[in-house]
Amino acid sequence: MKARREPPDHAARTRALTELDRNFLVEAGAGSGKTTLLAGRMAALVESGTRTSQIAAVTFTRKAAGELRERFQLALEKARAGARASAHASDTIERIARLETALASMDESFLGTIHAFCARLLRERPIEAGLDPQFSELEEDEAAEMRAV
Q: Nearest 10 degrees: CA dihedral of 69, 70, 75, 78?
């Protein structure tokens, strides 16, 4: 039987999934696993005790945000299945409970575009930003009309 070789960046991926108190910059091409890595890191944060309301991940597109949300849910479900399979561990009940809570409260995390993130911050603190609390964002066609004028 032939031994499975690890990818060249295996050590870096492992660090990103286990060294949760550090920030990492991940530069890689399309399809290389960046979204899966980020979702796995977010699930690891939950397993370590981070609440979903403390997690924010910013993307460039709505499509990428949707993909990240799906992968995050899958990573949480996979972690829960793994926790259930390791019933002998002393912290398993707490770990499963954290993962169940995270799955039920995924909407408390922010997974969206940079524009949505900024709008959320401005909605939370409009007075400090010098905005009317009832401000609204321009739609794409409205912005195009304003640029044309």
A: 150
